[in-house]
Amino acid sequence: MIGRLNHVAIAVPDLASATDTYRTMLGAEVSESQALPEHGVTVVFITLPNTKIELLEPLGEGSPIAAFLERNGAGGMHHICYEVDDILAARDHLASSGARVLGDGEPKIGAHGKPVLFLHPKDFNGTLVELEQV
Amino acid sequence: MIGRLNHVAIAVPDLASATDTYRTMLGAEVSESQALPEHGVTVVFITLPNTKIELLEPLGEGSPIAAFLERNGAGGMHHICYEVDDILAARDHLASSGARVLGDGEPKIGAHGKPVLFLHPKDFNGTLVELEQV
Which chain B residues are within 8 Å of A69, Cβ to Cβ? Predict the structure, then answer.
């Protein structure tokens, strides 16, 4: 069912500093930052040859990564995103397997403009899993 | 400097259960488990089209993931591994940039039989970073 690893998201308290770390210390290709107010984050994409890293900084009130950064002040790996061909079929398979889909179970349009779902970390080894239909 | 994302490592308290989750719930291609006593872990590889996930369970005394699992009982993302062409050049660049290399600074032979180094999470947004020379 799952296909490519689309991205690993790292929540950071200071996006400019984190971007500089990836650019200068790790010598990676970094994007300009993009504010995504409807998703409550500002994002920088780290382009690797086979996938990407997303550095996320909270934006505005009620950011979905605010609580994570309260618990992990220095930042950390927040979620991992796998691609699927058919997100509704994936959701139905997961639900029938006993996995919990977060929210109301309906795919939302994610930060890349594509349908996404998030799966409960308690069902996936303490890891928040995002599925994105590509 | 950094190249491909080689793998994301997820520490798990119960490897058989975690493997079953990836096989049956997520429909992924999973390997047989491999005990790596010299690295203190038993590992299962999840093969994705563009990279891999490594599920790690502690093996023996003094496993390098034991403390992580004490803090994160359900498991969680433990480290991320980027490939480099020249690990000594990478180390020297990082040291000159002020990043802390863990251990004595000398590359060790990692679980894939290749030279690796680990970088201090405090210098990388709370994320433990492994570099592997490929």
Answer: none
